[in-house]
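Worked Example 4.2. Read the sequence first, then its structure tokens.
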Amino acid sequence: MEGIQGATVALRLDQQLEKLRADLDPGYHIELAGTVAESKKGSDSIAANVPLMLFIIFTLLMLQLRSFPRALLVFLTGPLGIVGASMMMLILGRPMGFVAMLGVIALNGMIIRNSVILIDQIEQDIALGVDRWTAVVEAAVRRFRPIILTAAAAVLAMIPLLESPFWGPMACAIMGGLIVATALTLLSLPAMYAIFFKVKRNEAAI
């Protein structure tokens, strides 16, 4: 079947074999093997290492931002990409398999990078004596162009892979997730910063 991964076909066939499995004599069984089984092993391996990955990411954010609230704020923006990735894959009818999971993991890093850039700009402006409200607003405005351009470059780079039966789901997840997450980051992160640190309009810099 053109445009469909082998794993998807195998899983569909496996579902149709349930009735045959029920009628097999004792000692006989039918199970998935080959690339499908290896893909499941890969997925299980990723899932087992997710807690360690999240711990390392948060530790690095703490070292970079030197603040638990700021690190937590940036860390919370990572899952924003799942919304866009899910929508894009649903629209294009792509399967959420092992390769797509790799795309979501890579997407998480891209989103956190953009959030760090934005938070760092806010902190730099506050350190220069700009009042906190103005720093939040102007940082979002000044960083809008570079964040949008880097996101657009990453999205456009995924277009050649979009039609690939193997790499297509990963490209789809990255493209959809990055588009939605970039917009949400630029809009929600400044608002979340203001709420977290109780920034008010015309407030003097601290």
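Now turn to a second chain, presented in exactly the same format:
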Amino acid sequence: MSAGFLEVDGIAVRYGPVVAVDDVSFRVERGEHLTLLGPSGCGKTTTLRAIAGLETPSAGRIVIDGAPVCDVAARHNVPPEKRGLSMVFQSYAIWPHMTVFENVAFGFRVRGIGRDKARPAVERALALVDLAGFADRPATRLSGGQQQRVALARAIAYDAKIVLLDEPLSNLDAQLRIQMRAELGDLRRRLGFTAIYVTHDQEEAFALSDRIIVMRGGRIEQQGTPSEIHRAPRTRFLAGFLGMTNILDAELAPLAGRPDMVEGRVAPGIVLRARDPWRRDGAAAIGFRPIDVMVAIDGARRDGAVAGIVARSVFIGDAAQYYIRSGAIEICAHDRPRADLAEGRQVWWTVAPEDCLVLRE
């Protein structure tokens, strides 16, 4: 494998007996947007801070553009300000006693570059985030969205090798978050900078990333393109994290003539066919998304359909969630609100084999 623009090799971060990051390795190519995705406490922010030099690894090596910036075995650790990186924090880290210009120019100041030399880059960065007329405004007179733009401008003003973004949109309201997500994606496409982005929001990760690394318990659970992660999560944890709420324990059997598929007994008399692209050993489940469940009322039975009773329904605006009990199992289906799917109604449900996936621990 050729060397990446950023190489993280076997990084571990420990706090006494607690292992926050455990043997994490990955590569990032120049111009790539990589997202570290996962729930709180999975190690994604600690990994980002280790790359930035804000955390000291207990093992491993980090190389940026061919130059080692951290090598625990060699006792080599370059300080944060000498790694050529920029970082956008979750809290934005805007200095309240400074103007917008002074905040954006701060990276130049800590590197010993004067205000006059920094001015062209600062003004360009402010223009890129639509804050050209705000240079002299006190930071205390900024809205949340404007503070986020200032933090972005500060990150891109200095010609950083990599921009690190730690949950930069999490403090914004839902509508502004969507707007700023689109603006951030557009900005990165125009400037072409390399980015490592941390988030717990899968929608954010899918919208912005070239590649996603999902973390769990300080380790990498799975990595791939957004479409690969969404279409084929390998484990029960990842499938559940991505919203695949129908996860049923299954006893697997081969499917004749289809080496990529199996039959899974999920309850007495209920067998589902599912994709099994990895063919690994271990306890298995079959997972499928509620949106992929097709529900018909009694009398419209299809081949392979499973009989059930609508146990309850939840109205969620333009759609509804229908919970269907079939013997020992209960599944969830998403559909438009339907009067014929009242609670207690007998129905038949099916899921296409291509929409079912074998999951393991």
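Notes for the reader: Residues 48 and 164 are 7 Å apart (CA to CA). The first helix runs from residue 44 to 52.
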